[in-house]
Design brief:
By secondary structure, the protein is mainly β. The protein has no helices and 14 strands. It is globular.
């Protein structure tokens, strides 16, 4: 049993797909039986999207992660100047996931991929791989606020409780109603 998040990156000519599987028995590090190595296109102008796992030697075509995973960093290669779109496909494969929020750290934009795709422009032709995107996965029923503040810090409510995740140490928190 797993939930599968399928993400694409595309331009007007090409598209690429990566899958993130949320499984009960999966590990964060690379596992041959659960993770699949992706063969990257040798044509550098073809867009690519993938995730990485500790211990893998390349990007992953299918990355299995624990069910409680809340954040997955993405790698994107665009290859040439133009307009690109990141979208989620095969949403029917999601059973417990209720929100997949794409965060662009460069523009600070947040897009719920369950509802719409995200479009961005690249102004220069480069084969560099960017780490500017990540997704925040919500797998529980949230009936209030759900905000990604930045640097992986997330605040959300469930019932009458407030949750703050992503802190690396002690922090001061002020709450106002």
């Amino acid at each position: 049993k797993y939930d599968e998040i399928s993400l694409t990156v595309s331009n007007s000519q090409n598209s690429d797909l990566t899958r993130i599987r949320l499984k009960e028995d999966a590990l964060v590090s690379f596992e041959r039986k659960n993770d699949g190595i992706k063969l990257m296109s040798p044509v550098m102008s073809v867009p690519q999207i993938y995730t990485e796992a500790q211990g893998s030697c390349a990007g992953l075509a299918c990355n299995a992660l624990p069910l409680n995973t809340e954040r997955v960093d993405l790698k994107v290669r665009t290859g040439k100047a133009g307009t690109y779109k990141i979208a989620m496909v095969n949403k029917e494969k999601l059973k417990d996931v209720i929100r997949v929020m794409l965060v662009d750290t460069e523009t600070k934009a947040q897009t719920n991929l369950m509802e719409q795709s995200y479009t961005f422009d690249i102004t220069t032709s480069t084969t560099a791989i960017t780490s500017r995107f990540y997704v925040v996965i919500t797998s529980q029923d949230i009936n209030g606020t759900d905000v990604v503040i930045g640097n992986g810090i997330r605040v959300y409510t469930a019932g009458n409780k407030v949750y703050l995740t992503g802190l690396n140490g002690k922090a001061g928190v002020n709450m106002f109603d």
